């Protein structure tokens, strides 16, 4: 979702260096979003409710100091894309210049904090991905029409793991589950609002969450469930049920991918598949939390 025209976090304005100026509205707004994001595991309200948001901490190009900004993002497989729109203003945002000078940054997604490397996309790749974003959300196209600069597209690729935002295992599990709930809800809303054409970015959004969900369940089967089975052998029937539910979800994911791959696929036609996946996954996540969260909380 392209942030609304004039959204404060997309622009920066210098304040006089003399005396001690009042906090600039841009900085105050940014800080409020940052605090809400961190307090609510990536959920924020207001104009950004339901949108995809990250916190990026860059190194100042001139100062060398860390600067944190909330930015909208687009899924792109194993990387994410951020767009330096600055609300369609005439200048690139400060965080973009920071990434040009220092491409390694810290990313917070509400569940995990990790180190990433930024790549400024150029040429045909930049044009293709910006067009893909603008097709899905005309706000990006409006920003580009309002400025003479080519709005940059930046790809962020994770290069190092960081600590979970919550700390203890129970909070981590719940945070991961809520992230999947939130993303699938966003994908469904995008399909419902997109009209008759399955746009490329919406397809990428859906495939990305499908791949991430499959990877999460694979790790649970091999790691968490195995460890919990050793520590709590009485849980064998419940863990068997959870593994069976993973297989059911995997079947639904395969069916959804197959539908996405059809040349005649439409958002309306995909909604029943998405709804089945959401319903099955919600039942599974709720049961898993009922069984595992109390034990993880005790262990912590």
UniProtKB/TrEMBL annotation:
The alphabetized UniProt keywords are: Oxidoreductase
List the GO terms this entry assigns under cellular component, sorted alphabetically. plasma membrane
Top-level taxon of origin: Bacteria
Where in this chain does the record put each Hemerythrin-like domain?
170-296
Q: Name one GO molecular function term.
A: coenzyme F420 binding
Which InterPro entries does the record match to this protein? Answer: F420H2_quin_Rdtase, Hemerythrin-like, Split_barrel_FMN-bd
Could you say which EC number(s) this protein's record lists? 1.-.-.-
The record's listing under SUPFAM superfamilies reads: FMN-binding split barrel (SSF50475)
For region Disordered, the annotated ranges are 1-25
Record's compositionally biased regions (Low complexity): 11-21
Q: Which reaction does it catalyse?
A: oxidized coenzyme F420-(gamma-L-Glu)(n) + a quinol + H(+) = reduced coenzyme F420-(gamma-L-Glu)(n) + a quinone
What family does the Swiss-Prot or TrEMBL record give for this protein?
Answer: Belongs to the F420H(2)-dependent quinone reductase family.
Q: What is this protein called?
A: Hemerythrin HHE cation binding domain-containingprotein
Q: Which organism is it from?
A: Streptomyces griseus
């Amino acid at each position: 979702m392209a942030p609304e025209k004039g959204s404060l976090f997309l622009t920066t304005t210098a304040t006089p260096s003399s005396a001690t100026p009042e906090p600039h509205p841009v900085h105050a707004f940014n800080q409020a979003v940052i605090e809400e994001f961190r307090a609510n595991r990536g959920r924020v309200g207001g104009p950004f409710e339901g949108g995809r948001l990250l916190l990026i901490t860059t190194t100042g190009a001139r100062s060398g100091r860390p600067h944190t900004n909330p930015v909208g993002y687009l899924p792109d497989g194993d990387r994410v894309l951020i767009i330096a729109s600055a609300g369609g203003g005439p200048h690139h945002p400060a965080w973009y210049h920071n990434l040009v000078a220092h491409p390694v940054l810290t990313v917070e997604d509400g569940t995990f904090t990790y180190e990433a490397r930024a790549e400024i996309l150029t040429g045909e790749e930049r044009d293709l991905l910006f067009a893909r974003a603008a097709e899905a959300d005309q706000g990006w196209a409006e920003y580009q029409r309002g400025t003479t600069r080519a709005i940059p597209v930046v790809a962020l690729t994770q290069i190092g793991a960081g600590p979970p935002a919550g700390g203890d295992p129970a909070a981590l599990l719940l945070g991961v589950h809520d992230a999947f709930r939130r993303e699938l809800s966003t994908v469904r809303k995008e399909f419902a609002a997109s009209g008759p054409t399955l746009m490329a970015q919406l397809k990428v959004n859906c495939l990305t969450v499908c791949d991430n969900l499959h990877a999460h369940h694979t790790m649970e089967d091999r790691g968490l469930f195995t460890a919990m089975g050793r520590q709590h052998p009485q849980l064998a029937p419940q863990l068997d049920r959870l593994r069976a539910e993973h297989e059911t979800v995997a079947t639904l994911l395969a069916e959804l991918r197959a539908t996405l791959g059809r040349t005649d696929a439409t958002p309306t036609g995909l909604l029943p598949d998405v709804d089945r996946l959401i319903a099955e996954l919600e039942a599974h996540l709720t049961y898993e939390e009922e069984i595992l969260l109390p034990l993880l909380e005790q262990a912590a």
